[in-house]
Design goal:
Blueprint: H1 15-31, H2 36-42, H3 47-57, E1 65-66, E2 69-70, H4 74-87, H5 89-109, H6 112-124, E3 129-132, E4 148-152, E5 155-166, E6 173-180, E7 183-190, E8 196-200, E9 212-222, H7 235-269, E10 271-272, E11 275-276, H8 281-309, H9 315-340, H10 351-361, H11 368-380
Parallel strand pairs: 3-6
Antiparallel strand pairs: 1-2, 4-5, 5-9, 6-7, 8-9, 10-11
Amino acid sequence: MQPLELFDFDSLLSEEERAMRDVVRQYVDAEIKPYVADWFESGHIPARELAKGFGSLGLLGMHLEGYGCAGTSAVAYGLAAMELEAGDSGIRSLVSVQGSLAMYAIHAFGSEEHRQQWLPGMAAGDLIGCFGLTEADFGSNPSGMRTSAKQEGRDWILNGSKMWITNGSVADVAVVWAQTDDGIRGFVVPTDTPGFQANDIHRKMSLRASVTSELVFDGMRLPADAMLPGVAGLKGPLSCLNEARFGIVFGTMGAARDCLETALSYSIDREQFDRPVAGYQLTQEKLADMTLELGKGMLLALHLGRLKDDHRLRPEQVSLGKLNNARQALAIARTCRSILGGNGITLEYPVIRHMNNLESVFTYEGTNEMHTLVVGQALTGLPAFR
């Protein structure tokens, strides 16, 4: 029996939701899993080819309406994120940054000209986007960002840099957040603009099947209409991050499920002292405990998805999901690695790759500590961030 069968999880999904999940699972099984260990080892992915494939499936910006986007439910998007991350967290990140950060920002806060210019190509995978918020010295505290946009006549001049930017060096368009005289504003930046530079970050031990870059803006001149007109202040980037975090709530459970299914199969086949490793009480305790946490995480994710589809999901509830599911997924991956013993550290099995990736997922889109404080503030009414 597979772990989620114990929860009869499929009975909680509609036929359409199961069908969409299964299409993504089949694609990941055929087009991602046979190759992703090599991509991880080499630190390179065929990002453009992947984007085209995801576009053909309707996965890019799939929960957005119009402009070539599929307009699916939040739950369907979450299930797709789960299957993508069962392949690899870096692959889910490509889709998440494209749809829930770059495309969402343009869709929610851009002008109609921005939407018409960028969203159809991004939905099709012909164009790739990235999202520039985090800086080397300002991760959990984005309000302190140093990247600035100054007006010169009707134009804007951007100077500064962004760090840890997924899709950065392969992007055709970047949504960049900068300090202005009127507070933080977002800008739609074609990456062929003079003064824009993207430098890949190398020597990563996590998310190696993902493009991660530093963005540098050196006197970059943008027209007045490059600014996103629909939002001012941190509300803009933080609402985008909530969209991406929602996908992580589901996605982490995909990585955890893949680890657990691998460990379960391995422990049944692997014999020590003339019997399967799965036949020992200590192993069964590990498998049972991990199944409980996976099932609880999936039920939490589904509940949050139903709330989102009913337009009742609050930011602190997203934090609750990200906090729990990233934490438990990492714990599951580590325990599964122990069941595989020495084989657990090789790329012949997916567990060490998921484990390393989840170390990053545990940190990005809001650290474990920051989401803990968000939940703490929701409970007490007292902010403890400073």
